[in-house]
Every structure is written in C-alpha cells, then in structure tokens.
Amino acid sequence: MAQFSLYEEEYHPSPLQRTWHEFRGSHVAFVGLIVLGIFLFFSLFAPLVAPHDPIAQNIDALLIPPSWEVNGSISYLFGTDALGRDVFSRIIYGCRVTLGSSIILVLLAMLVGVTIGTIAGMMRGVRSSVINHLLDALMAIPTLLIAIIIVAILGTGLVNSMWAITLALIPQFIHHTRSFVRAEMKKEYILASRLDGASNRQIFFNSILPNMIEMLVVQGTLALSIAVIDISALGFLNLGAQPPLPELGAILADGLDVAYLAPWNVALPGLTIFLMVLAINIVGDGLRSALRKRLSH
Amino acid sequence: MTDVMQVKGLTFRHSDTKRWLKRAEIFKLGPIDMTVKRGETIAIIGENRAGKSLLAKLLVGALAADDGEILLNNELYNARVKTSATEQSRTHDIRMIFQHSSEAMNPGIPVGRILDEPLRLNTRLSETERKKVIEETLKKVGLLREHYYYYRHMLSDGQQQRVALARSIMLQPKVLVADEPFAALDPSIRSQTVNLILKLQQEMGLAFIFISHNLGIVRHIADRIVVMENGEIVESGKTETIFRWPQHELTKKLIMAYQSLVPQQTLR
Q: Which domains are assigned to chain B?
C-alpha cells in the first residue's frame, strides 16, 4: 500500500503519442516523413497544386527546358515534353496515380493476407498448412510475369496491373502473419485471456493485433515500395497505365523518345520514383524502430 | 469450514495410440481426489515432471482432462470440457496465476486493458464502473492508480507479479491456483508478495492452491500439503504432520533436503 496520497499524473501519453515521440528522435526518418508527406499531399490535392492540365497539349510550348535553365520559363517549372504538356503537373498527377494505386493495393493485399494468415495460424495440423500454402504457387512466378498473363487475358490497363501486383503480394503477408500468430498463440498471456473466456476472435483483436502492428508496418512498407516500383515498371513497359494517363513509369517511357533532346523528361520522373521509394523505406525503418522502442524503454 | 471445491477422479493421459503425424507420448496423471476448504491454503510439492503444473492447468480448465469431476461451489463441472466463454461461472470462481508473470502479461497493451479484459468478458459493468473496480483492485495489491496506463516493460518483476495477482482477484474468485508464484522473485519481494496474498486471503476468504519448491514458504503459509510423484498424489496431510512425520520415501527425501539447510531442527 502506498503510504503517501499522491496527486495522480494528469498526462498519460497514448501508444500513438509514444510512437510519435520515439519517431521524432530520428532525424533521417523525420526528413523521410516530410518527403513522403509532400508526395501524399501532391497525390491528395493534385488538382489544386498542379498549375496546368496534365493532359492538355500546347503546340506553342514544345520541349521547353526546366525553369532553372537559361531559356526556361517560370510558368513551366519542370519544362514541357514533346507534346507541350507541363512535366511538373504530369509528375504531380503521376504521384497521385502511382502512389495512390500502390497504397490501395497494399492495403487490399494486407487485409486479405492477414485474414488468411490469421485463420491458418489459429488452426492446427494439415488444414493450417493447406491454407498457408494456398497461394504459394504465386510466389514462384515473378510479378511481371503474372501481370503479363493477366494483361494477356484481360487486356492492358492500370487496374489489371494492380490486380496482378496484389496477387503477388498476398502470399508474403500470409506467411508472416501465420508464423507470428502461431508464435503468439503459444504464449501464456493468450492462455490467460482464454481463461477469461475470450473467444478466438476476441483474442486476435485484443491480444495479438496490438503486438502485430510492428510486423505489419515492416511488411507493409516493404510491400509498398515493391508496389510503387512494379506499378511504374509495368507502366514503363506499356502493360500497366496507358499513355494519356499520367503515371510515373508511363511518363518515363514517353520521355525516353526524346531523351537526348530533352533529358529532363526522363530525369525528373525517374528522380521522383527514386525519392518516393527511398522515402517509403526510410519512414518504414524509422517507424519500425520507434514501435520497437515504444515497448522497450 | 465448508468445502469450496471437491475434485473426484481427475485423470489425464497423453494419447498413447500413435496417430497420423503425431508422436506418441506416455504420461498419466491421476486419478486425483482432493477437497479444498474455504480460506484454506494448500501447497503442492514434488519433483520436476511430477505433473504439478499439469494438475494446476486441469483445475482451472486450461486443459481438458480425460475423466473426472470438479465440484466447485456446489456446481458440478465435467473436467473433460475445456473452459469456454459459456462456462462463465467457473471463470469467476477459480482463477490462476502463472509461473512467469512477465510472460502472462501482454507487452502490447497497457495494464488497464489487461485488467479490463476479465471484467469486460464476464460482467455487465459499464466502462466507468469497470475503471473504478480496476483502480480499487490496483490499490488493493499495493500499486498506484497510475499503473493503469503502464506497459509491461515499465514495471519491475515484483510489480508484474502484483498485476498478475490483481488480474486473478479481479472477479472475486473463491479459489486461486498459482503455479510457482514466488520462484522468480528476490527474497524481500517474495515475502512482500506472500504477505499480500495472506492479507487478501483473510479479507476475501480465498482458498489458495499453490505449487512451490520452496519448503520454507510452504511451511510458513500452507495449511495442508500435497506431495506428488509421477502424476499421482503419494501423500497429503497437515503441514506440521508432513514436516515432522513424513511417510513416503519422496516426502522424506524432500524434507531431509530442506532440514539439512535448517540445522537446528532434527527429524524425529
């Protein structure tokens, strides 16, 4: 029994605030977050930020160099391409298409993968193994090949390539979730909640999920960077997003035709993809260590 | 004193027939008969692999037994059935403290939510009422209200033990089963915990069944002792009787080993 009647501490940081506090400690991760935040802002508010229509062609302004060049113009910040479209606006809309579709497909893959993995992890014996290895065949085939098959059946398009990448990402989520849930189910605190009368569903949401977030963040950011690269690769190969749609890979492929004449048409979209993947990985790494530190000190 | 719990013919066997993709293992527990009176403290002692922890798990219903009956608070439970959400009164009346309290605490959620779980699942209290009960229980086991917001890594071993204790008394049980609750604690925290449990036992009329290798504590707090070997009870009786006139070979061995540490007493 406490001998003193002490005032109760009024401020109790929530788990989220703790994670944020730890995350802020790492400067590199914070810079990565700012960069990623800019990309997210672009993709959310593309119509407000973009100075020009990304598809509108302007014959009076073909291949204008970026504004920092001698004969560049400030009204076209990153210059224009061979059809007179503003590269800056196209990149902003490109962030929207590439990053947005990647986030959607990763969330979808995560939802499906975690659900199947949890079911497999809670079951025992042969049934669990069957569910676990249900989609393993997909891991043997590279994403691009699955995409080509799907595209061959359904035709080219951004949505079809999204399906292909989602399918390719699901098995990893299943495996990681299943092994995590299995390891967790053996622990004593699960037995303790079971003795409290918790059902499997309650055990999952109340006891396992709070511990699984770290794993989900790691796998999610990994999957997100893979998705961004794959979406742009498919766009670049003309299998994903089709040319009028501003997608970073497709913009890169468009610019390749005039690469010697106007190198900014290749360099700037390429740089954007690079920065995007880098920022995602840095933020994921920082988030993981922040989540781990939250539970260690 | 009335009987709060009666155990009749509790038996557990590992599947001795070889099944597909499963190794055969032969270990048999029981049949075990015992009675527990209100407010009584029973110590289970014995060597490793004698089935003590298994017995504890069978009593609380964490594992399903193969045969036997448990009469708890005048309600009959078939020991063959594992505790499920429908069997709530059993959850109410008998609670368990695990061997390693740190492993029995979820690292991802704060103490408040850990303690909230038994209440949320077994009572109809509203959220504010539950919080009040949790805060009272935290104070009862010698923690502060603030510990509601603490995570596992912020608590010391002794505090974790107290949280485990708080969790087990949260539903006002009749019987508390503890699997080596004092093993991991240093002597001063250990005696604090022992005194705390004794105090709670007096206040709440708890029957307390515990497994221990520490015969000093056993002699100090237990009313009765049960000695187990190879899944069977080989001797049971009043603490002083067992300590002074042990009958079975194993009991003699255990007592001798203890007495040799306490030189001023001799075996009669």
A: 3-104+173-259 (3.40.50.300)
A206 interfaces chain B, CB cutoff of 8 Å: yes
Asked if B167 has any chain A CB less than 8 Å from its own CB, the reply is: yes
| HSE-CB for B8 with a 13 A CA cutoff | 8
User: Does residue A200 belong to the interface with chain B, where contact is any CB pair within 8 Å?
Assistant: no
Place of tokens 């080993």: B257
CB contact under 8 A, B153 and A188: no
Tell me whether residue A205 is exposed, middle or buried, using C-beta atoms within 10 angstroms of its C-beta: 0 to 12, 13 to 18, 19 or more: exposed
pLDDT given for residue A228 in this prediction = 92
Convert the pLDDT of each residue in A188-227 to its tens digit: 888 888 887 788 888 888 888 888 888 898 899 999 999 9
Q: Which residues of B touch A193 (CB under 8 A)?
A: 106, 117
Percent of chain B scored above 70 by pLDDT? 84
C-beta separation of A32 from A286 below 8 A: yes
Angstrom CA distances, B219 to B35, B175, B202, B208, stand at 20, 20, 18, 14
In CATH, the architecture of A34-294 is Orthogonal Bundle (1.10)
User: CA geometry: angle at A156 spanning A152 and A159, to 5°?
Assistant: 115
Q: How many Å is the maximal CA-CA distance in chain B? A: 59
Residues of chain A with pLDDT under 70: 1-10, 297
By C-alpha distance, which of A195, A136, A117 is closest to B91? A195
Mutation site, B117, B134, B150, B203, interface A, largest A CB count within 10 A: B117
DSSP readout, B165-195?
A: HHHHHTT--SEEEEESTTTTS-HHHHHHHHH
pTM listed for this prediction: 0.81
A143-154 and A158-185 helices cross at what angle (nearest 10)?
A: 130
Domain boundaries along the sequence of chain A: 34-294
Q: Closest partner residue to A196 among B107, B122, B144, by Cβ?
A: B122
Nearest Cα neighbor of A273 from A249, A255, A244 is: A249
Residue-by-residue DSSP string for chain A: --SS-PPPP-----HHHHHHHHHHT-HHHHHHHHHHHHHHHHHHSHHHH-SS-SS---TTSTTPPPTTSTT--TTSTT-B-TT--BHHHHHHHHHHHHHHHHHHHHHHHHHHHHHHHHHHHHS-HHHHHHHHTTTHHHHHS-HHHHHHHHHHHH-S-HHHHHHHHHHHHHHHHHHHHHHHHHHHHTSHHHHHHHHTT--HHHHIIIIIHHHHHHHHHHHHHHHHHHHHHHHHHHHHTTSSS-TTS--HHHHHHHHHTTTTT-THHHHHHHHHHHHHHHHHHHHHHHHHHHHHHHTT-
Task: Record the tokens describing residue B22, joined without a space.
Answer: 């499963």
For residue B144, the chain A residues in CB contact (below 8 A) are 2, 6
